[in-house]
UniProtKB/TrEMBL annotation:
Sorted UniProt keywords: Lipoprotein, Signal
Protein name: Lipoprotein
Signal peptide: 1-22
Amino acid sequence: MRHPLIAACAGAMLLLVSGCGARDNSAEARRAIEDVNVIDETNLNDIMLTVADPTEAVNYFKRASAAAPDRLDLQRGLAASLVRAKAITEATGAWQSVAAHPQATPSDKVQYADALIRAGRWNEAEAQLNAIPPTYETFERYKLEAMVADSNKRWAKADSFYEIAASLTTQPAGVMNNWGYSKLSRGDFDAAERLFAEAIGHDRDLFTAKNNLVLARGAQRKYDLPVVPMSQTEQAQLMHTLALAAIKQGDVAIGKGLLRSAVDTHPQHFEAAARSLAALEANVAR
């Protein structure tokens, strides 16, 4: 189905053509058509990069790039669409070509580093980020810098980069969740708990942060659920996570109680919790 904005542009083109034809001015008509076609294509590219099906977007940009191989914007669109489609190996190659282009921008190199990280090629990602001028300061750049520092266990650098990244966006929930997970992996459970709570404060629907918050609390033997927004299903899932954390630390009786509560709380049959409870009771019986 054509996007309303594209349809409007097409309608505008027809009006321009008929108007120009009435004046018998073919040169002006051609210019008008070209201008509208550029608007039409620009909006179609934006739609493909955001709301279109990822596979459909990949096919569109492949065709467009093949027809106009000198168009860097279409190469960028293909690379970004491949990331959306989770075709990471192909996306890495596409972003490499874009980043090597004479007209490539620092943003292109950041996107290439992102693709390299998704492919697990951390050293190459770090090299790409190091090649970007320090004056280029964006949320995406510092988010990736923090992740690379994390992977190298350079904790002070990671904390600094996470803090900068969070200050450069109006939606810091995701980066705060990542920062909290970094703290959790280091054993700094109190700081992790605080950061996960902040992430949820910015995005109450971020279930990953809720689950991580429960893990941080469980590591401190805090076995009550935190006071955060949650649905009944989420409550059951978080009880299950907390139960496993308790069992892992040897608090089996508490874990068993939490599993029973998870099964009872879930609005449907909670297979994972029921299976864990059955396995635990069978083990105790033996």
